[in-house]
């Protein structure tokens, strides 16, 4: 008898067909709402859309002197900050102004040539006949604002014409008597981005910026995260920032930040650093030097601290990275693997039923997976399988790749997918390359097609190598995976995602190119092997030298904090902290200046962390002979924390495990960590091999790279899949400049 599908499968198939028909006809009238249509950006001529390539940095940016500041700080009230970075290259265009979104008013008119956002007469905002000019650089005047905390904990704008009653204002203890909790906020623009300075002040009788009697001489620099591709100023959420740091402001800390220091708006770490330096210059020119500056911020806001402390010592004196990664460029290595592997599991695998075991998927992906945990967009998979010509199956599990990294490829890697489309006119959307690589083109350069070079490469990568060694997959399954996996098409060949809105504007998009599958290379006819992706060696070397990659050269106190989010399949996984640690160890031979805390999600250790860091910093500053390592109080150790805030375990061995080839410590047992696809492919835990050194297949077999699995009978097939050999991770990263290798210590490059 022939194959007969079950009733349940036929039911799923009918549902898919019905949804597809509704979606096709619904697309005729349901579209994405352009909520910024009334202030779209005009076209820019070519010279405004090109960032000149920076001069080649011949040594690490840490060792490159920065120019002397040329702007006359402080910016006066009513004045405007610098519109160009001091040393971070040319301005990027197009650039969307967001001061209106930040409730800071329209930017200033800087041209009448139609470049940038239209500026309206205030009384006729949105009326095209009352445009008074345009703004391409988004500058705003420097202004003061005041907020007070009400007794319920909320913050309210202080109105001098109708001030609150004294009794209505919450009180804080900053000395001998309770003080009304009032925050003075300065906002303006520096390097075209929005900045903010906040500190507690006495009851104001009129706006003035000079008083700082309540400041405890400690400065917090707030960094923030997110995945971004540039091209916009960013939204400054003043009230939200005050609320986020309310506990520290109530202790007398001052707070500064800039939208240039939120990675949602740019991952250009030289621009971020340039802006930190200038925001601090504004602060110091008004209030003097702080005792110390401590950075704080999560995800991208954590990696920014690692990189800025590495690249320009002295800007921040201590770091509190939250949910951090080492750097953005390194995360793309396995992040861009995710959708390739998920596409293989759901579409191209010769044995798709095998991958219904989500625990087995983990052996390939590395990141956590959960059987029975259904992703909210799981319904897209059978629709896409049907479109791809394979039998549809509804997934019965989920992974961090799907739950956390889904859409990363189209967001940061696809130059034709403009997720900022609602900000810009149609002509601009069609002309600009919308990718993370384009945001970094000043460092990475362009290829012959005019697209930005990339640092992503998977030639020689043997996906699932550890699973093969552990006999979780067979040699035939290993070969099929690596034959089909492929890579990403060249930038100039990529196409936009096929997105349709099926259940109302901005809701439930029907993603007909799931996993960005139309941009994945397909097996070629003569070999049956899907081509892999090739990175630019020049771009990788530049990424190292320009400080976009964390190499571990950091000497300030670092208290790396995160919640344990692996059960939630959250992308902020524990192993990222130890990726940074391994790089520090590789560079310095020890990690004495980095401490890692991991807490249960129900307990927030930040307030305790600020207190601990203050003790650490006061020890460090007490004597010029002290270092970050020998000034660390003995009470500040690696630890894991339960839901009540109690320490489960602490000490130098509590996080031992596979990452350092030791027996698992108590914290590692309590909060298990997972790995990544490149670690599962035999790579090192430090996670920074962009292009691997490759060795011939016969040499790989002879060296024992496949463990006790006999792959000699598969030599021919392996040779077709890997014509230039397979990765030998013991040799490190082929793209890393030799002068940036660790100076004295033996690299731990061999995976466990």
Automatic annotation (TrEMBL):
SUPFAM superfamilies registered for this protein in UniProt: alpha/beta-Hydrolases (SSF53474)
List, for all copies, the residue spans of the domain called DUF6351. 85-735
- Which residue windows are coiled coil? none
Transmembrane stretches in the record are 12-30
Sorted alphabetically, the keyword list is: Membrane, Transmembrane, Transmembrane helix
| Pfam families for the chain | DUF6351 (PF19878)
Question: In which domain of life is the source organism classified?
Answer: Bacteria
Q: What is this protein called?
A: DUF6351 domain-containing protein
